[in-house]
Amino acid sequence: MESTEVESDILRRVRTLLRELDGHHPTCQCDRGMLRWTLHKKIDQNPSNSSILVRILVKELERAERGDFRHYIIPLLHTLMYTLIKAPCISDELCGRVYDFCKKLLTLPKPFCTIGLDYAIRLKMERTAPGTLYQRMVISEQSLKSDPYPYQEKIFIFADPELLSEAICNALVTDTEAARVSQSPRACMCYVILHTMQAALGEGCDISSLKATLQVMPTSDVEHWFRQVVVAVECAGNQASADRSQHAARLEEISHAILSSCQAGDAPLGGLQDTPLPNPNISFHLWTEDDQLWKELVLFIRPLSQSCEPDCLSQDLDNFEIQDIISDCECCEQTRFSVLSTDSGIERDLLVAVEEPFAPCGAETEQSRLHRKGGIKKKPSPLESMAFLQAGCNGAGMKSPVKLQRRPGITPEPAAPLQRLHTARIVLLGDDRVLGRLAQAYHSLRKRETRRVFLTPRLNLQFYYIPVVTGQPNTLAMTDHAATGDEELCEVAGYLGRADPWYESNINTLCHVIPKLAAMPSSPSKHLVTDLFITDVIAYYVRMGTQPVCFQVYTVKIFFNDPAQEPAEDVFLTELRTQVQESISYRGSLLAELSMTKKKTTLDGPGIDLTVTYRKVVLSDRPKELVVSLRSTGLVMKAIPADGADDLVCLNVNITEIIRINNLSGRSFSAVANRLKTCNIKIRSTEQRPFTVCLDKDSRRVYRNVISVEVSPCLEPSYCLQKTRTMKFNLHETEDVGLVKYMPKSLLLPINTFAGIIQ
Questions:
Q1: For the segment 38-93, what is each residue's pLDDT rounded down to a tens digit?
Q2: If 0-12 CB within 10 Å is exposed, 13-18 middle and 19+ buried, where does residue 746 land?
Q3: Angle, helix 207-216 to helix 185-201, in steps of 10 degrees
Q4: Backbone angles phi, psi at 422, to 5 degrees
Q5: What 3-state class would DSSP assign to 692?
Q6: What DSSP assignment string belongs to 183-239?
Q7: pLDDT tens across 585-603, in order?
Q8: Rounded to the nearest 10 degrees, what angle do helices 524-544 and 70-86 cross at?
């Protein structure tokens, strides 16, 4: 009877979760976004109920497929997989049902087939070697040393201190530090051993005795048995002909060996026990420097503790040139010599005539050959750098950019390909303004990688976004829009929520939850809630959010009223807003200018005369350029569509046009909204009156005394470089040829969600 009540309670919670996806929010608004969290926490309290939850979720998935409730499938599947990873033991029969359902998803369109294929591959490995998914997640997130699985991950939380309150920043710092300190490498290795044993052996595993034995065991012995377990699981998971029973037998041998190594008291079998999934490695950063993102990524790839000279590396980071870092590290290995070379570079010119035809290749033979002194390392050519960038776009492996120098008669060994062993998960907290800074930083990073490839072949970069609004009024320079609402500041979050209901349910609800938790008075109960909720939700998001939504980054070229001032170039992600500049900030007859402006305003109405040249978006995708002259008080370019069905690679331009009306009572003016869609647009003030430009709703990114702007989709820097080099040899070629045809042309900013865009 008790089992029936537990099953009914779990089913009720799952059905409530599905009703929230349909828009039926819970009566208590404080429960919004916490239904998934409370469900998993209830299972953590009693791990033996994991199989019940998995069975219920499988039934609901099958029901959703039969009833064509596709918007249920991805949330249910993510909930199921997260439960399966954390569960102490799931039967092969139940895993098989989930595996068969994932294979059915391959017949559906994206993103269902993509997620189904990913989970089917994972489940096939989990069925052969139970505990593989948990083990790999802990090893990578905690950066545990493991030769069979050498991958490392780290979560970087970036928050703009000018957009978030001090209380929110302090609360997040406290939570992330507490999560990082509470997990030691020894404890994580013990968790891997215990979970793997229990997943493979089930209730036959003496988990209590194993736990007691590992607690009194020296750290060196724990590391030894950890390596044994990892090797056993990885070998079984990577072998196509591996058998589950053979894997269980191998782990049982390791379990007996662990128990026999230390004399721990005999303890009765206590059934399945929960093995906690440690919080991932999270670091919190206040975003105060423009190049801070790049610096943190470089230090993640090459930590100070592993570099040759920490002080030297820190100085090189300040110089912003990665080649200096590589060169300085090479200085520690060998001394450089400047030697005048008389070598022609032709192999037949080498002095090898004294060698006998059949002489063995011994030490004397090597001495007779010409040896070059240790010289300065040759820089890779631009084309070799392009190979790196192209491989970075298409896959993890790539060939080395430095060619091997051959010796006569010796076959060079192939260089080991570089692998992306590091994954950096960048989590942005804030509103659209912090995403505008991210677009700037990402564009700068891509330009730096084009000049000198370093991060691309070594790092897998993932972006995540959690909207947080403090409720403080926004003080933009634009007077007409000074009181921008929360929805206006969170357009990206709104779009992602419309595209992915599970993102709306789990992430968008944090917009006001995080400020409320940060404002709670300091107490033990507060730390309990924040540690268990905010950190857990962030961890769930980065673990299960694998489907990117790609946003087009736009570049803007700004021309100023002063001819001596160089044009400025910048990028934006969400919005560009212009407004007539009331005061003129250059010297001269200011009173005369103001008088003329006032007289013209009286005759022609408010605003300034503009010439708008744009490329109209048509269904045939053929370029159609139009020129429009009008009088306007300002315009807004929106890159994020208000409707989820609109295209993400199109600008929605709203121009406030001033229309002059002549009637019997005199002259009057009316404002008319002029709307157009385009990807490329040029705006010029015909009367040389300046206007202001604000990017991404950020008052720190306002340009004044502007007379002209040109907006177009931002191109991928590597594409631009390769296109330039191709044009040198094909001056009359206008279309992309060669390698350029297969390179990404536009710079897209990918932000991960749970489902991507559901059509």
A1: 899 889 888 889 999 999 999 999 999 888 788 999 999 999 999 999 999 999 99
A2: middle
A3: 160
A4: -115, 140
A5: strand
A6: --HHHHHHHHHHHHHHHHHGGGS-HHHHHHHHHHS-HHHHHHHHHHHHHHHHHHHH-
A7: 444 444 445 455 555 544 5
A8: 110
Average model confidence (pLDDT) for the chain?
Answer: 79
> Considering only 36-50, 661-675, 702-716, which range has the smallest mean pLDDT?
661-675
> In a 10 Å sphere around its CB, with 0-12 CB exposed, 13-18 middle and 19+ buried, how is residue 340 labelled?
exposed
How does 368-407 read in b/e, with b if 16+ C-beta sit within 10 Å?
A: eeeeeeeeeeeebeeeebbbbbbbbeeeeebbbbeeeeee
- Give the number of residues written for the chain: 759
Q: How is residue 381 written in tokens? A: 């050519």
How many CA atoms does the CB half-sphere of 462 hold within 13 Å?
Answer: 20
Ranges of beta strands (E only) in 453-574 are 459-467, 547-552, 554-560, 568-572
What's the one-letter identity of residue 231?
A: V
236 CB-contact burial (10 Å; exposed 0-12 / middle 13-18 / buried 19+) = buried
What are the beta bridge partners of residue 47? none
Average pLDDT rounded to a whole number, residues 237-253: 83
- Angle of the 432-451 helix axis to the 717-729 helix axis, nearest 10: 40
Q: Which of 582, 563, 545, 575 has its CA nearest to residue 708? A: 563
CA–CA dist 454, 197 (Å, integer): 40
Copy the structure tokens of residue 100.
């068969």
CA distance 423 to 149: 13
Q: Is the pLDDT of residue 509 over 60?
A: yes
The rounded distance, in Å, linking the Cα atoms of 505 and 25 is: 10
Residue 386 has pLDDT above 90, yes or no: no
Of 238 and 53, which is predicted with more confidence? 53
Q: Which own/partner contact pairs does 402-409 have at CB distance under 8 Å and 24+ positions apart?
A: 402/377, 402/378, 407/369, 408/347, 408/350, 408/352, 408/369, 409/361
H/E element holding 485? none
Q: How far is CA 109 from CA 101, 113, 114, 439, 451, in A?
A: 15, 6, 8, 30, 39
Rounded CA separation 109/239 (Å):
31
pLDDT in tens, 325-367: 444 444 443 333 344 445 555 544 544 443 333 334 444 344 4
What is the token pair recorded at 271? 């059934």
Task: Give, rounded to a whole angstrom, the gap between the first and last alpha carbons of the chain.
Answer: 43
Q: Could you write out the DSSP letters of every residue in 638-669?
A: ESS-SSTTS-SS-EEEEEEEEEEEEETTEEEE
Is residue 135 within a helix (H) or strand (E), and if so which, with residue range?
helix 132-142
Q: What is the DSSP string of 270-322?
A: --------PPP-EEEEE--STTHHHHHHHHHHS-GGGSS-HHHHHHHHHHT-H
Distance between CA atoms of residues 748 and 573, nearest Å: 10
